[in-house]
UniProtKB/TrEMBL annotation:
Family under the similarity heading: Belongs to the bacterial ribosomal protein bL20 family.
Keyword Ribonucleoprotein included in the entry's annotation: yes
Keywords for the protein's UniProt record, in alphabetical order: Plastid, Ribonucleoprotein, Ribosomal protein, RNA-binding, rRNA-binding
Species this chain originates from: Poterioochromonas malhamensis
Keyword S-adenosyl-L-methionine tagged: no
Domain of life: Eukaryota
Pfam families on file: Ribosomal_L20
Assigned GO CC terms: ribonucleoprotein complex; ribosome
Example of a GO MF term: structural constituent of ribosome
Purpose of the protein: Binds directly to 23S ribosomal RNA and is necessary for the in vitro assembly process of the 50S ribosomal subunit. It is not involved in the protein synthesizing functions of that subunit.
GO BP term (any one): translation
InterPro entries: Ribosomal_bL20, Ribosomal_protein_bL20_C
Protein's recorded name: 50S ribosomal protein L20
Length: 115
């Protein structure tokens, strides 16, 4: 039988995966099937990581706010509930930033929530 070479399209597809797999170790960067599998897996990990990053930052902000409030002998849930009742809509990121970088402004907010 006559040998048939693969077309340019297959080579292009492989090149795309190999470009993505630069820096991978062992056969993951050299063999086409392994490279494709590893690429798909790495993209899945990246997707999951983006979701986890949001969770971990939110947790980090809550820790910061809570530690600042515990220094003032207050509870996190009560203060945030009171801020919402007063219609002071600041998200956790901003509150954490205030508690760390501008404690005086944070204390003013907390005092407003007490009254």
């Amino acid at each position: 039988m006559v040998r048939v070479k693969r077309g340019n399209l297959a080579l292009k597809r492989k090149k795309k995966y190999f470009k993505f797999c630069k820096g991978y170790r062992g056969s993951n960067s050299r063999l086409s099937t392994m490279a494709m599998e590893q690429t798909v897996q790495s993209l899945q990990y990246a997707y999951i990581g983006r979701k986890l990053k949001k969770r971990s930052f939110r947790k980090y902000w809550i820790y910061r706010i809570n530690s600042s409030l515990s220094a003032l002998n207050l509870k996190y849930s009560i203060v945030l509930g009171n801020l919402k009742k007063l219609k002071i809509f600041l998200n956790k990121k901003i509150l954490a930033h205030l508690s760390y970088n501008d404690p005086s402004a944070f204390e003013i907010l907390v005092k407003k929530s007490k009254n």
